[in-house]
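Backbone-to-sequence.
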């Protein structure tokens, strides 16, 4: 799913979305892609969307994107797709460092806010995977239940 040379969006599985290739993915852009994918799913199923589940998916998307920007050297790719009863959010970055639930020492001293993103992702998402990319960096994929 998060290979270095992503599949052309036209050839992607039904429901797959990929933010337009760019050098500056922002959390708001990724949240918009999640909103659109969930709205499309609800329209297709002719059922109302679970607003709490959507809020969870938006928060996970924001945290993964923000963590890639702050700790991963920048976002290199984003993929959003519906998978069964959930939404899969994949964010790739330039760093090989694995995410951690422990804040760095500066954050523990209170000089910097933060340190809550990864624990939030771990609490709200299911089937979280971290994959190495062939030319360096990693892809974090998290599935958030929509029901």
């Amino acid at each position: 799913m998060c290979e270095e040379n992503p599949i052309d969006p036209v050839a992607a599985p039904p429901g797959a979305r990929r933010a337009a290739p760019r050098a500056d993915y922002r959390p708001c852009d990724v949240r918009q892609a999640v909103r659109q994918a969930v709205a499309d799913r609800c329209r297709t199923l002719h059922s109302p969307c679970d607003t709490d589940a959507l809020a969870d998916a938006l928060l996970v998307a924001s945290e993964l994107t923000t963590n890639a920007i702050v700790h991963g050297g920048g976002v290199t790719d984003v993929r959003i797709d519906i998978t069964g009863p959930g939404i899969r959010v994949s964010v790739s970055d330039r760093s090989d460092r694995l995410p951690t639930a422990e804040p760095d020492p500066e954050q523990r001293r209170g000089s910097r806010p933060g340190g809550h993103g990864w624990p939030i992702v771990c609490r709200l998402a299911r089937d979280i995977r971290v994959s190495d990319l062939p030319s360096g960096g990693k892809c974090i994929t998290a599935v958030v239940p929509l029901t």
